[in-house]
Design goal:
Blueprint lengths: L9 H8 L4 E5 L6 H17 L4 E7 L6 H5 L4 E4 L11 E5 L4 H4 L3 H5 L5 E5 L11 E4 L7 H12 L9 H14 L10 H12 L4 H9 L4 H12 L2 E3 L4 E6 L1 H6 L22 E9 L5 E9 L8 H7 L3 E2 L3 E6 L3 H18 L2
Parallel strand pairs: 1-2, 1-4, 2-3, 4-5, 5-6, 8-9
Antiparallel strand pairs: 7-8, 9-10, 10-12, 11-12
Helix pairs in contact: 1-6, 2-6, 2-7, 6-7, 7-8, 12-13
């Protein structure tokens, strides 16, 4: 019985990828900064390490509007409507997730290529049967950190300050976004050490920040207003819950790529310990499901939202986790609040 633990080294993954020419790099559906940054940093490093190699990244579930600008000429494809990668790879690398649910429409495609798949992740939960090679850096703030080590390995470099700027920018994006631009509790000396090395490699912090955080369409602010307008406080104002129905997203003239990243807004309220946003999503089978994104304040009396998410068959980190429930929002909400209060009671 395998478990969600590292069972290999980055050196061994590099050795496995040696001589592989067509490599598909995948990540979780509805990509974020770490998913894009770590996948494209790996793609660029693989292609730079071998002139004949054709590595590319494949994304499902929509993409943020900054994707193409960040990616530049790094090969990447956004697959819509259940489409699958058009290559038959000789190796697959999954970064920033290792769970079937997060792979979404790509799950069966990966399952059919299990033996040639490797996972590089930093989440506390995942499905160990996704790949025979698992590198799970659970103490890392971003998947971009182990990916950076692999990139150095592939390129024969010692320090991230020696990376080409085009790769350093991608790793920086992963590191910065998964730490909330160096605000979250996962920030530590290693994070700042690596950030410093990446700045020395030529990364322009202001440029990356503007690219990712100041590049929204007006619809994104309208949908944020819908989310804030839906705010409810529960459990003596300790739980903040926002909702985004498909109707609200439609009203804001927004798309699914405009909805991410609002889950921590509720944490701005002094009494709130857990903030959640429930987003109605369309599933492959046209039934209604609710995506739940959870954030908690760290420090004394912290509520471990990874535990909450696990009760709902999801997972993540102690302060940032997610799950998906096959119920409409109004039915998912009491289930979620009950799960949070259960974890809260256990942690007393
Ligand atoms: Mn990540």
């Amino acid at each position: 019985m395998s478990s969600w633990e590292t069972n290999t080294t980055l050196d061994e993954i590099a050795a496995f990828l040696e001589g592989k020419e067509r490599i598909a790099v995948l990540t979780h559906a509805r990509v974020d900064g770490d998913a894009v940054g770590s996948s494209l940093a790996l793609v660029r490093s693989l292609n730079r390490a071998s002139k004949t190699r054709r590595a590319s990244a494949w994304y499902v579930g929509g993409a943020p509007n900054w994707l193409d600008q960040l990616a530049g000429d790094a090969p990447h494809h956004v697959l819509d409507g259940g489409k699958l990668p058009e290559v038959e790879p000789d190796a697959v690398v999954v970064v920033d997730t290792g769970s079937w649910g997060q792979l979404d429409a790509l799950a069966d495609w990966v399952r059919a290529r299990h033996d040639i798949t490797s996972v590089i992740d930093h989440h506390l939960q995942g499905d160990p049967d996704v790949a025979p090679r698992l590198f799970i850096a659970k103490t890392c703030a971003a998947a971009a950190q182990p990916v950076c080590e692999l990139a150095l390995d592939l390129l024969g470099l010692k320090n991230a300050s020696e990376l080409p700027t085009s790769i350093a920018e991608l790793i920086y994006t992963g590191l910065a976004t998964d730490t909330g631009w160096f605000r979250h509790s996962n920030v530590n000396a290693e994070v700042f050490d690596l950030a410093g090395q990446l700045l020395r490699a030529g990364v322009d912090h202001t440029k990356m920040m503007a690219l990712v955080e100041m590049n929204d369409r007006p619809a994104r602010l309208r949908v944020m207003a819908e989310a804030l307008g839906s705010l409810e406080l529960h459990d003596r104002d300790r739980i903040a819950v926002m909702s985004l129905t498909r109707e609200a997203i439609h009203r804001a003239q927004a798309g699914s790529s405009d909805t991410g990243g609002f889950s921590d807004l509720g944490l701005k309220i002094s009494t709130v310990r857990v903030s959640a946003i429930l987003t109605e999503v369309e599933t492959a089978h046209e039934t209604v499901a609710t995506k739940i994104s959870l954030r908690s304040k760290s420090g004394p009396n912290m509520i471990d939202v990874n535990q909450v998410a696990r009760m709902l068959d999801g997972g993540g980190h102690a302060n940032a986790a997610g799950a998906r429930i096959g119920l409409p929002i109004e039915q998912a909400k009491p289930v979620l609040i009950d799960a949070i209060m259960q974890v809260e009671r256990q942690s007393k």
